[in-house]
């Protein structure tokens, strides 16, 4: 005998529809603002940044320094060793992360006061990170973490995930929920997609392998930021065909790379100690796919935590990210950007890439190789370095593989490692290289067709 399908009240239906609709509009509704397209959440983040911009440098310094000092003290003196309080544990990342935090905090102090070696606080190294990157991230972390439950906790993930589950499962070996992660970052920010996936993993929706594959395959750079990247190389007139090429390369990467090591070798296990959501996954006989998706969404909304707990969890997640990524970004970013700005090391590292670019008949292969290899350190470095290259085809390819790479150490890679899903620096670098090797010929072929 078939199980009787559960009936839902109007209030329960509205509990799914209203928050999900608000969330979809905030994160995914394209709006035209002056001469560019954006989404409401980006406008909200920009407005918050404008309001607090006079205080942002001081706030950034406080966020990086004070928690880092507390973390080092707690770690060195082994304070509260058996504590289960998550507020205490946020300051107990372990010895290695504590050292990284304090080194990053020291770096930020040197940059803020412009003391010490110039290679640390130069406007093209630490100055870029402190003055341009750090202020944007703080508002992004807190606004997105607090509002993300509108996408994740009231049934939208289950609704879209059920509709797309078969497609994503066959094509990418991933749950349909990954479509929401992709759209959230595609229309707003890469970090947002990674944060969303982290929250879903910690909520028991993804295994480590699924979360790692989604982060490294679907947390794409937003449309708006992609336009900024292309503008750096003075090719914004080619945006539509160029972005189509980037999407094509991204789909090919998503089809291939999750099936290869190192992603294939990450354990297919859920986060330890987390209770998986108790959502009915069985489609009833005679029930349409849309009806099944709608029912799963209502069940999820019905079991949603109180708003106060969701906000509390969001603030906790944002705080954890901020006090970890801020100092880590400074130490990693400054070291990487300084190597590019002050040494020839990138010339040597990029040597293996030169013959590949020559095989693809890309002009100015030496300069292009240096630009492309700097992308693992920071997203904007390849287009900053590549902007002086004369060949339009080469600049087209550099911008394309840069946007498609997803992973860069100065920000997103740190968030991925913080998620503790089996992604370390070496694995991220291998994935970055795999994405580069797949995207390079695709972007070159498309560039030759378009330009």
UniProtKB/TrEMBL annotation:
Keyword match Transmembrane: yes
Domain Nucleoside transporter/FeoB GTPase Gate, first and last residues per copy: 138-233
Keyword Transport: no
Residue ranges of coiled coil: none
The entry's keywords: Membrane, Transmembrane, Transmembrane helix
Protein name: YjiH family protein
Transmembrane segments: 12-31, 51-74, 95-113, 133-151, 211-233, 239-257, 329-349, 369-389, 396-417, 429-450
């Amino acid at each position: 005998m078939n199980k009787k399908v559960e009936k839902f009240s109007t209030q329960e239906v509205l509990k799914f529809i209203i928050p999900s609709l608000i969330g979809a509009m905030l994160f995914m509704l394209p709006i035209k603002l002056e001469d560019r397209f954006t989404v409401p959440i980006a406008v909200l983040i920009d407005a918050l940044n404008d309001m607090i911009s006079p205080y942002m440098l001081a706030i950034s310094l406080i966020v990086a320094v004070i928690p880092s000092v507390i973390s080092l003290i707690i770690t060195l003196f082994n304070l509260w060793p058996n504590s289960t309080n998550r507020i205490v544990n946020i300051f107990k990342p372990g010895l290695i992360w504590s050292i990284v935090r304090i080194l990053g905090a020291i770096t930020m102090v040197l940059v803020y006061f412009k003391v010490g070696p110039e290679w640390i606080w130069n406007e093209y190294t630490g100055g870029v990170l402190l003055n341009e990157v750090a202020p944007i991230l703080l508002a992004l972390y807190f606004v997105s973490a607090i509002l993300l439950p509108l996408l994740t906790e009231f049934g939208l993930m289950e609704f879209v995930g059920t509709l797309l589950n078969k497609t994503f499962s066959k094509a990418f070996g991933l749950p349909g929920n990954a479509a929401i992660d992709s759209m959230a970052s595609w229309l707003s920010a890469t970090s947002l997609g990674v944060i969303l996936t982290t929250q879903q993993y910690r909520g028991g929706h993804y295994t480590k392998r699924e979360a790692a594959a989604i982060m490294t395959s679907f947390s794409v750079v937003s449309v708006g930021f992609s336009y900024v990247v292309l503008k750096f190389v003075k090719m914004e007139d080619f945006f539509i065909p160029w972005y189509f090429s980037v999407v094509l390369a991204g789909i090919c990467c998503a089809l291939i790379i999750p099936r290869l090591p190192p992603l294939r070798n990450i354990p297919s296990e859920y986060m330890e100690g987390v209770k998986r959501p108790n959502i009915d996954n069985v489609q009833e006989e005679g029930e349409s796919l849309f009806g099944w998706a709608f029912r799963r969404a209502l069940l999820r909304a019905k079991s949603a935590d109180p708003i106060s707990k969701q906000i509390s969890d969001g603030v906790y997640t944002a705080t954890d990210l901020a006090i970890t990524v801020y100092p880590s970004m400074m130490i990693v970013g400054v070291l990487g950007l300084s190597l590019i700005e002050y040494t020839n090391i990138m010339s040597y590292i990029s040597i293996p890439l030169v013959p590949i670019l020559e095989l693809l008949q890309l002009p100015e292969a030496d300069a292009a190789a240096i630009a492309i290899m700097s992308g693992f350190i920071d997203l904007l470095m390849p287009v900053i370095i590549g902007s002086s290259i004369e060949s339009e085809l080469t600049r087209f390819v550099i911008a394309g593989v840069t946007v498609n790479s997803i992973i860069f150490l100065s920000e997103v890679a740190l968030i991925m490692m913080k998620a503790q899903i089996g992604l370390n620096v070496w694995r991220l670098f291998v994935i970055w290289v795999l994405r580069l090797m797949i995207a390079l010929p695709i972007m070159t072929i498309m560039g030759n067709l378009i330009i």
